Amino acid sequence: MIYLDHAATSWPKPDSVVAACQHWFTHIGISAERGDGPRTREAFETVQRVRQGIAAMTGHPADRIAFCSGATEGLNLVLRALLSNESRVMTTPFEHSSVVRALLALRDQRNLTIDVPDRGAAHGPTTDAICEALHKQPARVLVFTHASNITGGVFDAKRICETARKVGTQTVLDVSQTAGYLPLDVGADVVVGSCHKAMHGPPGLGFVSAHADLAMLPQKYGGTGSSVALERHPTEWPQAFEAGTPNTPALFGTAAALHWLGEHGPDVLLDRSLVSLNKIEAGLRELPKVRILSPGTTTRTPVLSFVHDDYDPIEIGTILSGQGIHARAGFHCAPWAHEQLGTSAAGTVRIATGPNTSDHDATALLQVLKRL
Ligand SMILES: Cc1ncc(COP(=O)(O)O)c(C=O)c1O
Fold first, then answer.
1. Residue 263: which residues within 8 A CB-CB, separation 6 or more?
2. pLDDT at 124 (0 to 100)
3. Which of 100, 65, 106 is nearest to 86 (CA)?
4. Nearest CA to ligand 1 atom 14
5. What residue ranges define each of the domains in the chain, with the CATH number in brackets?
6. Is the full-model pTM beyond 0.90?
7. From CA 13, how far away is CA 130, in angstroms rounded?
8. Ligand 1 residue neighbourhood (C-beta within 6 Å)
9. Measuring from atom 15 of ligand 1, which residue has the nearest CA?
10. pLDDT score, position 123
11. How far, in Å, CA of 323 to CA of 369, rounded?
12. 27-69 pLDDT, tens digit each
């Protein structure tokens, strides 16, 4: 199979990641902070290594890294913690459903005002538009994706977070599409991500990384391994944001993934992924009847979408699948972005390459598309 769906999840995972998960199942079997002995210690040290690794990426302290099941859970928890009744929140039209749906549900419950600068603008939104909107009408919280999961376009998160800080708006940055590719230490108050995309960890693990001074109360309650004698859920991090048995095999896999990322270098992995993506984009530009949805900038993630005048995205997905090519066709869990891009009727074909996507893979894809 030619796998071109790395924006959904990276595959194959590095051998060391698979081996680390296997090691947990075969030799460890228990969680950190649940019991005593060498296996608990190994689990504890591994989990600490993941906290430290993510802290090094986001620039937040290691004890402010909490684990959750993915960016979806992390974003839901953080938005619930930061937004109270009547809060004003700002976001962008390029958000994943894990932001859009979480905000709409909270609006119903807490009567939020949701500002979406440049929604409906043909180009939008740009970093400029967000900064201008913040100056005009600061919000309590700005939640935004670092990169679009449909076009690969990247926001200048550093400039946006700087502007937000000046006007007193707290920032929540969704790095699901950039963690493992781009620097995440951009000054956001909270950084939320999943470990199974460009970080190359297993699915079922995400993180909330918070600035040391940011107060956020627990949003789910339960066992924490430590502070077990307390009747109430602890308010100290990271336990404040963690409850229940953790996904320790995924934590072992992610520890290995962080090591693998460090060995290869995120910028090298991104460049490698962009070589095949750029070849695909150049090939698509030569095809009549194809409209490409891509940022056209050098800072980007290895993701693009396209639509075809004569074929529905789903039809193209089926044709590709028949040729052993796994791309993603239809809608991509970002309903406002489809509106913005004019693809609300049928979605797009999304191509997302990874560091192992070869020149041969790109050629094979283009050959099928040329025959349409
Ligand atoms: C931009 C963005 N945010 C959030 C998510 C949700 O991630 P998960 O499904 O791992 O919770 C995704 C997943 O596709 C995404 O692309």
1. none
2. 67
3. 106
4. 8
5. 15-264 (3.40.640.10), 265-370 (3.90.1150.10)
6. yes
7. 36
8. 8, 70-72, 96, 98, 145, 149, 174, 176-177, 194, 206
9. 176
10. 66
11. 11
12. 999 999 767 899 999 999 999 999 999 999 999 999 999 999 9
Q: Which residues of the chain have pLDDT under 70?
A: 34, 122-124
d(CA 281, CA 7): 16
Residues in CB range of 330: below 8 A, 6 or more apart: 313, 314, 317, 346, 347, 348
Residue type, 292: I
Residue 189 backbone zone (phi > 0: left; psi -120 to 50: alpha; other: beta):
alpha
